[in-house]
């Protein structure tokens, strides 16, 4: 996950070392361990803001924008992977509903 967070940072033009991604990995993991809304909405953003704004000195606006983009990208990857597996297994939502 640290590599994922660092890759998203690179997409934002931040070509730092490997460590900012690892710091984000830790702060997000600790933040989402708290009870939260489904999909970790809110706690994920808090972890990103803590890691980027407070610990790494980025602007709060950058941290919020990063948190939204990184969270949406994670959702999309998981949904697309799930749909791909369903397709490869020859399953559909209708067949799952019947079962």
Structural domain tally: 1
**N→C terminal distance:** 34 Å
Strand content: under 5%
Structural class: mainly alpha
Q: Give the number of DSSP strands.
A: 0
How would a crystallographer describe the biggest sheet? none
- What's the Cα radius of gyration? 16 Å
Provide a short characterization of the protein structure.
The chain is mainly alpha-helical and 99 residues long. The protein contains five helices and no strands.
Description:
The protein has 5 helices and no strands. 73% of the residues lie in helices and 0% in strands. Helix 2 runs antiparallel to helix 3 and helix 3 (43-55) packs across helix 4. It has one domain (2-98). It is mainly alpha-helical and 99 residues long.
Topology readout:
Blueprint (H helix, E strand, L loop, with lengths): L1 H10 L7 H14 L10 H13 L4 H29 L4 H6 L1
Helix pairs in contact: 1-2, 2-3, 3-4
List keywords for this structure.
single chain; 99 residues; mainly alpha; 73% helix; elongated
């Amino acid at each position: 996950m640290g590599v994922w967070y660092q890759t998203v940072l690179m997409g934002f033009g931040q070509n730092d070392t490997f460590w900012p991604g690892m710091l984000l990995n830790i702060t997000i993991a600790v933040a989402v361990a708290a009870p939260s809304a489904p999909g970790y909405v809110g706690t994920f953003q808090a972890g990103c803001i803590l890691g980027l704004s407070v610990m790494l000195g980025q602007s709060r606006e950058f941290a919020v924008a990063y948190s939204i983009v990184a969270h949406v990208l994670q959702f999309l990857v998981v949904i697309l992977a799930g749909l791909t597996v369903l397709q490869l297994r020859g399953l559909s939502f209708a067949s799952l509903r019947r079962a």
